[in-house]
Design a protein that fits this description.
The protein is α+β, with helices and mostly antiparallel strands. It is built from three helices and three strands.
């Protein structure tokens, strides 16, 4: 059975991605840039609009950038 992505706030997404060996490189406006500690070519951009929930298609794109599966992401939450 395929697990569905939850609808969550960007702050929670950032927290989960940080647990996957990423660090905050910088923030420009409302977009946070994260980089992987070991795989230096992995870069993830997360829009941080805290008043709104993150749409599933945006979260799916973030997971693709971070090279994380849905199951791996759900474990990090």
């Amino acid at each position: 059975m395929k697990k569905e992505l939850p609808i969550i706030k960007p702050k929670k997404v950032i927290k989960a991605i940080l647990k996957a060996n990423f660090y905050i490189h910088h923030q420009t406006g409302s977009h946070v840039q994260l980089r992987h500690i070991i795989k230096t070519n992995l870069r993830v951009t997360i829009p941080r609009h805290d008043r709104f929930d993150m749409p599933r298609h945006v979260l799916k794109s973030i997971l693709r950038q971070a090279e994380l599966s849905v199951d791996e992401f759900l474990e990090l939450l």
